[in-house]
Amino acid sequence: PIRHSESVPNVAVNVDLQTDATLQVDISDALSERDKVKFTVHTKSTLPNFKQNEFSVVRQHEEFIWLHDSFVENEDYAGFIIPPAPPRPDFDASREKLQKLGEGEGSMTKEEFTKMKQELEAEYLAIFKKTVAMHEVFLCRVAAHPVLRKDLNFHVFLEYNQDLSVRGKNKKEKLEDFFKNVVKSADGVIVAGVKDVDDFFEHEKTFLLEYHNRVKDASIKSDRMIRSHKSKLHIPFPHLFPHLFPHLFPHLFVRFFLKVSELFEKTRKIEARVAADEDLKLADLLKYYLRESQAAKDLLYRRGRALVDYENANKALDKARAKNKDVLQAETTQQVCCQKFEKISESAKQELIDFKTRRVAAFRKNLVELAELELKHAKGNLQLLQSCLAVLKGDT
Amino acid sequence: MDPPLPVSTSEPDKDIFSGPRAEPLNNPLSETAAEQLKAVSGASSKAKGDVPVEEAGSEEPDDLFSDPLGESGAELETHTSNAPLLDFSEEPPKSDPIKKAASADDYIKKPQKDIFEESTEDGVKAAAAHVGSVAAEKKVLHTDLFGDGVDDDEDKDDLFKTPPGAMMKKPQASLFRAEPDDIFPEAKTEAKPATKASAKQPNNAPTDLFTEEPFTVMPAARAAVKPAAIPSANTSSKTNGLHSDEEDLFAEATVELSLDSPRNDRRKRDAMKPSEPVPCPSTSTSSSKPQPKKLEELEEEEKEDKFDLNISVTNPEKVGDGMNAYMAYRVSTQTTLSMFRSKQLTVRRRFSDFLGLYEKLSEKHSPNGYIVPPAPEKSILGMTKVKVGKEDLSSDEFVERRRAALERYLQRVVSHPSLLQDPDVREFLEKEELPRAVSTQALSGAGFLKMINKATDAVSKMTIKMNESDVWFEEKLQEVESEDQQLRKLHGMVESLVNHRKELSVNTAVFAKSVAMLGSSEDNTALSRALSQLAEVEDRIEQLHQDQAANDFFIFAELLADYIRLLGAVRACFDQRMKAWQRWQDGQNMLQKKREAEAKLLWANKPEKLQQAKDEIGEWEGRVSQYERDFDRVSATVRKEVMRFEKEKTRDFKKQIIKYLQSLLHSEQQLIKYWEAFLPEAKAIA
């Protein structure tokens, strides 16, 4: 088990719009066990509905999902962009590698083994931290939301110090979800085809459709780029230098090549940092906005659906009036649909504006940090190279 | 060696050495300086004729060597015959310029000391060389004297039992560098033919050499050795026999120095000659005079480019069409070397010309133990693409790769002092039209090399395992083999690094496009702008990755590939040594048979056939000693070549690594520039 107890690295994909001291949530600790991760959710609050001002509970990923789903399913929240659920912790790849390493222990030198092990552990830890961060971001977003923060389920999630005994969805439910999704996306196409009366929403709709696809593409491509960057680092080329050079130059220039090996070793570490930071600042940002834009799209879908319902109710009402039959019922339905649509529209507009503000702020923050880190690393490399070259050139 | 030889063979040898040898010594030092030498050489030449074989073999060496080898004298007493060589191997490091005086001092503790005190790096070195060769000589003598294989082998073992490390590095290089070779301008041109000739008819070569080179190091060397050796004039005469051994050393040395400014040298030398008449130890002047210059040269040697010859291969150009098309390259030479007809030479050569050059050089120099740099390999696939004329990236890359490889190849050839002297090299660089190299059409450089390797492998497999007489060679060969493995491993890694970087570059380009698209759909203006800036940064980084991949490849991977092939050439030169050894062994077996035949005849009392048998024995004794000399010569060359190779290798790697680091440095600088330009854009997002 790997414990992560330092405060979560600033995977500040999330930029809180309103910082509010009345409810602050973070993940203070996390413990990775064989097949699950236990997050310690720490809450500080002055809200009256909590028994204490400060408390912690242990939660698992499934409970986060449960909370998220409860938001999605709540009709009252149809007008909100539901904060995207954190991705499922996935250590399988990393674990597998560690295991393989263990099997290959005999075939490597001790030094190589330790090095590889350290690297894989670092990789594992990075994934772990990211997982923790993503879960934290979800909670922070909820806690910062003017309505969702008051949600009862959320409070239970934060305060109830027992297992919520949430179970994962069984096969039948998963199948249902799948069909729901198929229907939803088919429906989404129909709904999307409906011309919106409101220019704002019409514009948002076109924007989000395109944006989502492109952010998805960018996210995939950035992942691929970073993956190839990391796999380049896995070539044992530089760290084999110290082993190789003595063979190549048994008597000569030992110092020279030691220096070079040392340099490669160091620059490689820096490059690993570069890849990790790009992952954190760029890939994660894009990934988050992939999910967030999906959530925004969902909101537009719900609104579109409500609009279609409302229009259908209008038609039904017209028909009922023409036939003078069931008019009252049609009127009620039309009323309900109208209210629903208007309620969604009202909050959705603000939500979408907020989404944009948040997005711009998050991109700014991350891109600035990315550029600064890139500069820092490049300068570090530059300095290493310069000083090494100075030594090597002087060393004839 | 000759004097001790039995009558039958001594004749040709006598001719060779008695006449010319005296001459060179006399000629150059024509004036007063010559006197002492003359006396010496006179004595020696006289002695040569006279001295009884037994004496030469058993006693003289002691006398000869006990003097110069002051410290190791004790050792000498015990193994008379091998000590000199031992010393030879140990001595050179001491003759390193800095310690020179001291070592000279140690070296000769005789009255003649003062002569050497100022002196004579070359003197000492030549002395060392001489001592070494004398030893070799003596060994032969020994063999001949006792005529039985066993004794022989033992002897040989001892001879080569040099402490593995001791001999190395500097000695050889400095030894040869220091020779005052330029004195013999003609020698330079003649050296090669002479060497060549010597390979075939070793007996003649020395003669040529020495007549051609009126007074070479020999005087100096002799001068250095002689005083020590004087007590036994006849041993010094024996040293003469050695010439075949030394001849390429001198040819080599000539080359080396001529790289500086031969004419200057000569002038200095000429100027110096008149001053030689200086009274007493005239020898000391002759050897000490060049001294200062020597030092300069040494220093120059240390600098990377002492070497005044720049070759570039440029302007690859497709000539002709279809499958008959070929690539021609412009080979430009810039040099101040007087051996070339002008300072700027430009010729056009096609790929097969390069292969042809390699084959010629390899044929001539490989058997002598030289490491002949292999030409780039023929690539049917790559060339076919070029021929078909697809103007795609890979064929451009192929052409550039080949151009660079050809350039490196030529640079390696001309940086080899002996190969530079080869008339074929000069012809290649100078001559307007070369005869078409026909044989290369079917045979690529690699194929050729492989063939050689196969052939030699077969030879070495067939023959009984050579009981390695010299640990040094055994260890080196092992080193070379493990080096080969390591290089291949490293090469594989660099290649995968190149591939990964290319992949990264492609992925970065793709990402850049994707970000640009994202930027275009972003509806916040500042963010949209920043994203398209980010796309631009990523685009540039993609270019950096691409450049770096090219650097990985051209600076690193190609270097490793070159050295993998060069190691093949190194192994080939070990094989050549083995061949020479085998020939010698076969010769000895034959001689043994002839002796047994003679013994039978004696026993059977058939005097009529006895004379013929004796003649045959004499003939074979001559051959055997020639083979042995060949083997010693090839061994010495291999040793020298390997040292040279290692030195070059270290320098090459060092140079390339620095170049590589500089390319990385450049990348980082660019990277910083790009991100610095981006940062304000990111901050401007609002």
Automatic annotation (TrEMBL), chain A:
DNA-binding listed as a keyword: no
What GO biological process term is on the record, naming one? retrograde transport, endosome to Golgi
Q: What is this protein called?
A: Sorting nexin
Q: Which Gene3D superfamilies match?
A: Arfaptin homology (AH) domain/BAR domain (1.20.1270.60), Phox-like domain (3.30.1520.10)
Q: What does this protein do?
A: Involved in several stages of intracellular trafficking.
Q: Can the keyword Oxidoreductase be found in this entry's annotation?
A: no
UniProt family annotation = Belongs to the sorting nexin family.
Q: Which residues form the PX domain?
A: 17-164
The gene name reads SNX6
**CC terms in the record's Gene Ontology section:** cytosol; endosome
Annotated SUPFAM superfamilies: BAR/IMD domain-like, PX domain
**Which UniProt keywords are given for this protein, alphabetically ordered?**
Protein transport, Transport
The molecular function terms in GO held by this entry are: phosphatidylinositol binding
Record-linked PANTHER family? SORTING NEXIN FAMILY MEMBER, SORTING NEXIN-6
From TrEMBL, chain B:
Q: Which GO BP terms, alphabetically? A: early endosome to Golgi transport; protein transport
Biased composition (Low complexity) is annotated at 281-290
Its Gene Ontology cellular component terms are:
cytosol; early endosome membrane; Golgi apparatus; lamellipodium
Q: Which residues are in the PX domain?
A: 307-436
From the Swiss-Prot or TrEMBL record, give the protein name: Sorting nexin-1
Which Gene Ontology MF annotations are present? phosphatidylinositol binding
Phosphoprotein as a keyword?
A: yes
Hey, which family's this protein in?
Belongs to the sorting nexin family.
Q: How does it sit in the membrane?
A: Peripheral membrane protein
Q: Which InterPro entries match?
A: AH/BAR_dom_sf, PX_dom, PX_dom_sf, Vps5_C
Record field: compositional bias (Acidic residues) = 52-65
